[in-house]
Design brief:
single chain; alpha/beta; 9-stranded mixed sheet; 6-stranded parallel sheet; 10 helices
Length: 303
């Protein structure tokens, strides 16, 4: 498989590591900055030298000269559409960091743009690791007979984003987690505007449905690691990560017990490589993507 990764930040390194773990042997690093892409390429060649992988550095023009089986887009969300427009071969499989495009740029026109790119590319996949994280937590939840249930989702993330940029960036995390954890097929939730809060670095979202009361607390500031806490009725789950070179480990802290869980990004890539020839796999992701964009836009407009 011949792959290209567009981006030169930490998340690009995460995607490259997952590609390497799945035995991809040729990867081109694409970035507008020659300095950054050359540095990463050199770093990868050194890091994975024993695996005999070919790493190359290139600018965007390579997309018109070379056919790639897989292209991963992991740049800022307000640039995704530029790269999607630049990729010409409809047979290429695409993996895109969430959100697929920026709602600040496209707003109410997002659907017409999504229709266009989904008509162009048959195999397009948006990465939503929080769906897999929700799966990991569900097996440890205590089943209760309560008809009305409460869930709090707290995410503190390292970023310089402010105001609406925070919700555009983290909204898909919240919604994909809630969708998987509560098995919501059509997101029957409504924002309680009077109880919700928005400021420069922080959002508190209070959402209600027929059987659930959902609170989401999301913030983006300068910090070392992303922190995630989930409270479900009287249970509390804290995600703890231990990040070492090539080994990103995830744990759940439940009371005082520390339980090892799968890395959500590794689960995503395992799913992809197992199902990349199945149309239904891509169709389900497409439906989820449209729903996430629709519901996130409703949140943005409701505040």
């Amino acid at each position: 498989m011949i792959c290209a990764v567009i981006g030169s930040t930490k998340i690009a390194e995460v995607h490259v590591n997952e590609l390497v773990k799945n035995n991809v042997k040729q990867i081109t690093i694409i970035s507008r900055s020659k300095k950054k892409r050359d540095f990463l390429t050199s770093q990868f060649n050194s890091r994975y030298r024993l695996k005999k992988i070919i790493f190359e550095s290139a600018n965007m023009n390579v997309l018109k000269k070379t056919y790639f089986d897989l292209i991963v887009i992991c740049t800022k969300n307000n640039t995704h559409h530029h790269y999607l427009d630049h990729i010409e071969n409809p047979k290429t499989t695409l993996i895109i960091e969430k959100p697929i495009i920026s709602l600040i740029i496209f707003n109410g026109y997002y659907k017409s743009y999504l229709d266009k790119i989904y008509n162009k590319f048959n195999k397009l996949l948006v990465c939503n690791p929080m769906s897999y994280f929700a799966e990991s937590i569900k097996k440890y939840t205590k089943k209760k007979k309560k008809k009305f249930k409460k869930i709090d989702f707290i995410m503190k993330k390292e970023s310089r984003k402010t105001y609406e940029e925070i919700l555009v960036d983290c909204g898909p995390h919240v919604l994909s987690f809630v969708n998987e954890f509560l098995n919501l097929s059509k997101f029957p939730i409504k924002l309680d505007r009077n109880k919700s809060i928005q400021n420069k670095h922080y959002y508190k979202l209070v959402m209600n449905s027929k059987n659930y009361k959902i609170k989401a607390y999301i913030s983006e500031q300068k910090r070392k690691n992303t922190k995630i806490i989930v409270k479900y009725n009287n249970q509390k789950f804290i995600r703890i990560t231990k990040n070492k070179l090539l080994k990103f480990k995830n744990f759940l802290k439940i009371n005082k017990e520390l339980i090892s869980i799968e890395n959500p990004m590794s689960q995503f890539y395992y799913d992809f490589f197992q199902n990349r020839k199945k149309k239904l796999f891509f169709k389900k992701n497409k439906v989820l993507t449209y729903n996430l964009m629709k519901e996130n836009l409703k949140l943005l407009r409701s505040l």
